[in-house]
Design brief:
single chain, Nucleotidyltransferase, domain 5, 12-stranded mixed sheet, 35 strands, disordered C terminus
Length: 606
């Protein structure tokens, strides 16, 4: 934990989910209190359609026909419902589930567009930033004990997101006006783990004090974050002193969240109403939303021991216009067989199968923590308990808020997860001295009078390496030539690649894909004729970081990763760096032995 004088005055955490979003916050003096006395504050969102209050609002955004942001959350739902009832919705933009557009994307562009429910598109960065801005403004209004400039902001993202997706989210938040230096990204299962450590009230088979002792005295646990869109699964090892966590297998998961259950139900329902879902959803929006709320309630009420059929309340107008086979004289409820209702939860089998795979690869996991909105489903939680009866399976009492509140704690102590495992093998595109019979002939090229091989994948770090927060992976003795006057003020753009093959040799290999660049800005007076520099990369953080130093005077260049690729990127092709080195404050990373083919030469700007 940081020294009290270094703690932020206040932390606001925004949990921006696929289905629901919200924020939580607290102040420095509250954070310093004991776990039982500490208070974390929330907003209360009111739903006119569902008739309730909650700490999260639907992740839906409404824009007017002029493409201007109008509202978010319940306010957006209710306004769009009103517009559709009076047939005035034409031209308006209503977005939902748009966060899933960033899922599983190795390549993203700032020009990404997202479609609303009618197919009309707007720039995705606009939809994200305006939605986040709504939450930011609401939080600023409520956090009134400190100045806005004294707030540290935390945004949660799935641990299975790629670096391009994380950067897209970061840039969307910065567009709201938040100072980049005051912004942290927290991985959702890690935030939930912090919540469980510090606020360990749980539902399960062990006394909560036993669990707290376990989390503070070493051991391994799995945390399964079951949200609306995705399921994130992470495995952590607790240090012997209980103060730090290490990620011992790359976070993984899939699109198995609560929305997959909803999709199966609405596919079933669409057949019942003769495939009129799209029409009714647009023409009878408020009634359709009421149907969604009705199913959500039944979904959460489902128990593993439930044997009777499920009777679902359906709005009368949906029954009539959907020609649903329901006898009004009897009720307004749809009778769903127990077997059919259970089939809606098929994605739970995907979760369990994935967990089985992890248990087959990682030993000594004693505890499973279930968090997220879907963790409140007794049916899914019991499926997991029954399959892993030899493990302790626990669900925090506020499972839906675990990520949001844990992210607040992360803002005060972002170093709790001290080491993370690399999900891919990463490297730089470079050229090396050509070796007859070893390099591919088609990549041979003369560069400044030297016989070189292009398209070499110069590995920086390997999939499976565990790297600490402050651990540096160093590639030094790069050279670049700037004799040509036109190149003295060029922004160097070094191609950065990810590979699923630990032995990848060329950037053209099928396993290898460019995911971004290292962008290096020239000094004010431009580059000298020859530059020798080293690159330091940090992979043990929630976001990758890079530093570039001029070896001549040890001055640091202005450098950054850019993972949001444009259509065509002018690049710098480094030539033959020295072997990668790792400097670690504690245990060294598992880096490969130096490759004897590497030689020190120089690089040129393409």
């Amino acid at each position: 934990m940081a020294d009290n004088t270094d703690l932020p005055h206040a932390v606001v955490a925004i949990d921006f989910g696929t289905s629901y979003s919200g924020y939580a916050f607290t102040y420095r003096d509250e954070y310093k209190k004991s776990n039982n006395a500490r208070e974390i504050f929330h907003n209360s969102w009111a739903s006119g359609i569902a008739g309730n209050h909650s700490v999260k609002a639907p992740t839906v955004a409404l824009f007017n026909p002029n493409k201007e942001f109008y509202s978010f959350g319940y306010e957006a739902e209710e306004k769009f419902s009103e517009l559709t009832e009076y047939k005035k919705h034409k031209g308006w933009y209503y977005f939902s589930k748009f966060k899933m557009q960033l899922f599983d994307k190795m390549k993203l562009s700032r020009d990404l567009v997202t479609a609303d429910q009618s197919g009309k598109v707007l720039p995705a960065i606009t939809v994200f930033s305006e939605s986040l801005g709504y939450l930011v403004r609401a939080a600023i209004h409520q956090v009134n004990r400190v100045s806005e400039k004294d707030i540290t902001w935390v945004i949660t993202v799935p641990a299975i997101w790629t670096e391009p997706a994380k950067q897209f989210m970061r840039e969307a938040v910065i567009k709201t006006g938040i100072d980049e230096d005051k912004l942290l990204l927290a991985l959702e299962p890690e935030a939930a783990a912090l919540y469980c450590r510090y606020l360990p009230t749980t539902r399960g088979g062990k006394d909560e004090n036993d669990i707290l002792g376990f989390l503070n005295q070493g051991g391994r646990y799995m945390i399964v974050d079951m949200g609306g869109g995705t399921v994130d699964i992470a495995v952590h090892e607790v240090s012997e002193d209980g103060k730090k966590l290490t990620e011992i297998i790359p976070a993984s998961g899939g699109a198995w969240g609560g929305d997959s259950v909803n999709k199966r139900f609405f596919n079933y329902f669409d057949k019942k109403i003769k495939h009129k879902s799209r029409i009714l959803k647009q023409s009878r929006t408020s009634h359709w939303m009421a149907l969604e709320c009705s199913f959500e309630a039944k979904k959460r009420q489902m128990r593993s021991k439930t044997e009777h059929n499920i009777r679902l309340q359906v709005p009368p107008v949906i029954i009539t216009e959907g020609e649903l086979d329901i006898d009004f004289a009897q009720s307004f409820k749809l009778n769903i067989s127990n077997k059919d209702f259970r089939s809606f939860f098929e994605s739970a089998n995907d979760i369990i199968s994935h967990m089985e795979d992890i248990f087959g690869r990682v030993a000594d996991i004693e505890l499973i923590l279930l968090v997220g909105g879907c963790a409140q489903s007794d049916y899914i939680a019991n499926m997991i308990r029954e399959r892993f009866s030899d493990k302790t399976v626990l669900v925090p009492t506020k499972a839906e808020e675990a990520v949001m509140e844990g992210a607040v704690l992360f803002g005060f102590d972002p170093w709790t997860v001290s080491a993370r495992m690399c999900r891919h093998t990463y490297g730089i595109d470079c050229s090396r001295k050509f070796r007859e019979g070893f390099h591919r002939e088609e990549y041979r090229k003369e560069i400044d009078g030297r016989d070189m091989c292009q398209n070499i994948f110069s590995k920086v770090v390997t999939e499976g390496d565990i790297l600490e927060f402050s651990e540096k992976c160093i590639h030094d003795q790069y050279f670049s030539s700037h004799k040509d006057k036109s190149r003295q003020n060029i922004v160097m753009k070094v191609p950065f690649y990810a590979s699923t093959d630990k032995s990848c040799r060329y950037t053209t290999d099928q396993s290898c894909e460019q995911i971004g660049i290292v962008e290096v800005t020239p000094p004010v007076d431009g580059w000298p004729d020859h530059v020798k520099y080293r690159i330091e990369m940090y992979f043990g953080r929630t976001e990758f970081a890079v530093k570039v130093f001029n070896d001549a005077d040890e001055s640091e260049c202005d450098a950054k990763f850019d993972f949001l690729l444009e259509q065509k990127i002018p690049e710098l092709a480094p030539i033959s760096p020295a072997p990668a080195q790792v400097q670690a404050p504690a245990q060294p990373a598992q880096v490969p032995a130096p490759d004897p083919e590497r030689e020190k030469t120089r690089c040129v700007v393409s």
